Amino acid sequence: MTRVAVLKGGMSSERDVSLVTGAACAEALRGLDYDVVEIDVTQALWEQLKAANPDVIFNALHGDWGEDGRVQGVLDMFGKPYTHSGVMASSLAMDKHRAKHVLKSVGITVADGGLFDRVEISREHPIALPYVVKPNGQGSSKSVYIIRGEDSQQRAAIAADVAMGEHVVVESYIPGRELTVAVQDGKAICVTEIIPNGWYDYEEKYGANAAKHVCPAELPDYVTAICLDWAEKAHDALGCRGVSRSDFRFNDENCTRDNVVNKIVMLEVNTQPGMTPTSLVPEQAAYVGIDFAQLCRWMVEDASWPR
Question: Which Pfam families does the record cross-reference, listed alphabetically (predicted)?
Fold first, then answer.
């Protein structure tokens, strides 16, 4: 019987979501008769893995130390097959600023902006209004600010938000609809539209009053085609493995086939997409006939070393 260690929890601000992801995946794998050991990851991960002695490692971590290449480095050293992306892709995708350069190099439209000192933003606007300020190396839309005008309190809050890091991403605010595409083994699945009650933040993703998902999204065929193509290109350009998820904004105002490439902007690529009951990747997989347990089995079977 294959012994699978499911890594969950961890030390990031997304620990709670990872615990739910890990528990769901562990339950599904047990139902498939895998021998499952759940590991709530600490700084003693090496010792935890040695004690578990797994055949395969299922990475269900999110955020710092889970999807930024650092845990992947430990897994490479440990020498057992593991799921999701390896060190390079994980680190690069998590670094939003540098990832945008790679995406742009393969013809994907990204938001204008750059990397700025967090405290300096409180003193003067770094780019034209409106703009978005977000951490360069975190996920789940925590500490995301939309600056629409001269709100000194909001900019002071950014300066005080040390969890964002010293340097933060500032990019032009992109109006429009929220879209996302899951890629499995290099092949895009479909497009989902996310309809939030407000800004698609952490609470909208995981709270009790979570955003509505429309799967598949009701879009012109040429919009769907570009989103699928760009998601596959991003997965390949960043070197992703297993499953990834690309997020977009689509401004459908006066959109035509001729100008569509200027109406779609890729926001980021997630190498460790959520696998909670409300997560987007399992929904898209289900749409094409892959249930949650089958998706988890595929991830285990796809695991390899090194990644």
Answer: Dala_Dala_lig_C, Dala_Dala_lig_N
Told to judge if 304 belongs to the known catalytic residues of this protein, a careful annotator would answer no
**pLDDT of 204:** 47
**Catalytic hit among 18, 90, 140, 244:** 140
Name the strand (E) or helix (H) holding 92.
Answer: helix 87-94
pLDDT tier at 121, thresholds 50, 70, 90:
confident
Please state the pTM of the whole predicted model: 0.92
Task: Please report the domains of the chain, with CATH numbers, ordered by start residue.
Answer: 3-85+294-302 (3.40.50.20), 92-110+175-291 (3.30.470.20), 113-172 (3.30.1490)
Q: From the candidates 12, 13, 14, 90, give the one annotated as an active-site residue.
A: 14
Known catalytic residue at 279: yes
The two three-digit tokens of residue 293, written as one number: 């347990």
Mark the binding-site residues for Mg(2+), compressed into ranges. Answer: 247, 268, 270
Does residue 291 sit in helix, strand or coil? coil
SS3 content of the chain, % helix, strand, coil (to 5): 35, 25, 40
By three-state DSSP, how is residue 25 classified?
A: helix
